[in-house]
Design goal:
The structure is a single chain. The chain is of the alpha/beta class and 239 residues long. Helix content is 37%, strand content 19%. It is built from 10 helices and 11 strands. Strands 1, 2, 3, 6, 7, 8, 9, 10 and 11 form a 9-stranded mixed β-sheet that branches. It has a two-stranded antiparallel sheet with strand order 4-5. Helix 4 packs parallel to helix 5 and helix 9 crosses helix 10.
Length: 239
């Protein structure tokens, strides 16, 4: 069986930028897979009637996702003609291959903490239903969401995004990795070695500058999340 790629390159919201594809679209996911990225990141929200959809912003084509039914939101199209993908369809598309992992960001609800945790519960339940655990790494800015994923699936790979936990605190919470803004690691370079010492993976977002990419590679980061995956793939291949 083919193994997932290990080249460190995570396409941020899919590989959308070079070909001007909609972010979080099926097309940007397929482009990330075609490029050979180790992972393709996407963002999950929950519609008013409880359907999980992939989109970065809280709004889609002018509609507030959390205040709109799935049927209503499907009436809007992306610039390339796609409708908003359900998370289930997105995962199923990604599971047709075994090279590129799916980096599943659980968004923080604008409505309530309870909705964030409901989204989290439904996300983990969906991944289990589809047997998608091998493909999925979870990320979130919400500490409670990350802890809920771990509580629901002890084997889940969860990386925290918010940048306010030390590596030891993240390890104690049961997390698999740190996924902080690159400036956090520049301000706390000691966290890099500390994370390695306690067995956490290291990722940084969103790294588009090649000098910063090189610094991350030199520091031995496990992953780098970027809007420029083709550029980073070129750098990794030259190492």
């Amino acid at each position: 069986m083919a193994q997932f790629l290990q080249n460190k390159v995570i396409a941020h919201r899919g590989a959308w930028k070079a070909n001007k594809l909609p972010q979080n679209s099926m097309a940007s996911l397929q482009q990330a897979i075609a490029l050979g990225c180790a992972g393709s990141e996407f963002d999950a929200w929950m519609t008013q009637d409880g359907v999980l959809v992939a989109n970065h912003d809280a709004e889609f084509e002018g509609l507030a996702i959390e205040e709109t039914t799935y049927a209503e939101i499907r009436k809007k199209k992306m610039p390339n003609g796609e409708v908003i993908p359900t998370v289930e369809d997105y995962l199923k598309a990604g599971m047709k291959q075994r090279k590129t992992k799916l980096i599943f960001e659980i968004k923080s609800s604008k409505v309530s903490k309870a909705r964030t945790l409901e989204l989290t519960q439904k996300s983990v339940a969906l991944v289990k239903k589809l047997n998608a655990q091998d493909w999925v790494d979870y990320i979130s800015f919400d500490l409670d969401a990350c802890k809920k994923v771990v509580a629901m699936d002890k084997k889940a790979r969860v990386a925290y995004l918010n940048g306010d936990l030390t590596p030891q605190q993240a390890k104690d919470a049961g997390f698999w990795g740190l996924d902080y803004h690159f400036k956090v690691f520049q301000q706390h370079p000691e966290w890099i070695e500390q994370a390695k010492d306690v067995g956490l993976t290291l990722n940084a977002w969103t790294v588009n500058d090649e000098e910063v990419m090189q610094w991350m590679l030199d520091q031995g980061f496990d992953f780098i999340t970027t809007d420029e995956p083709a550029n980073l793939l070129d750098m990794v291949s030259e190492e």
